[in-house]
């Protein structure tokens, strides 16, 4: 199995703390991405949806996963487990430095996650504290912050899956 961190970046203008609407560990937030089979290299044609509260029993009877999928080409079965507690919102500071933030970690067997798709169901706040619900399907967002009396905007979304290692650190588990 391999651990993948989902890293997300964007150009934030007057906005900060971009994250799924229920927070980074929102149990029902659907993460959309494609899967590439590690055995034959085939990429799934359809986008896969994985969320924390969708739990399936592994065929071995031992343990659970958040997704089980069979490769259409070689029929090998793989699984994805969502690992909460690792994500932090994308801040204005990170955006200014061109940095990305880790939103979630996925433990993958038999597959590599690729092509994360931003959908609806995000939120951020203006630097003056006004909350905004954001739909990222179009990849951009423009609004006016009445309280701060300034326009806010989001653009240049980017995302990547990075291989990370599980580490014990002062009694806590981290993925770096
Ligand atoms: Zn395959």
UniProtKB/TrEMBL annotation:
Q: Which residues form the signal peptide?
A: 1-18
Q: Does the keyword Magnesium apply?
A: no
What Pfam families would the database entry show? Answer: CXXC_Zn-b_euk
Keywords on record: Metal-binding, Signal, Zinc
Which molecular function terms from Gene Ontology are attached?
A: metal ion binding
Q: Which InterPro entries match?
A: CXXC_Zn-binding_euk
What family is reported? Answer: Belongs to the UPF0587 family.
Q: What is this protein called?
A: CXXC motif containing zinc binding protein
Q: Taxonomically, what lineage is the organism?
A: Eukaryota, Viridiplantae, Streptophyta, Embryophyta, Tracheophyta
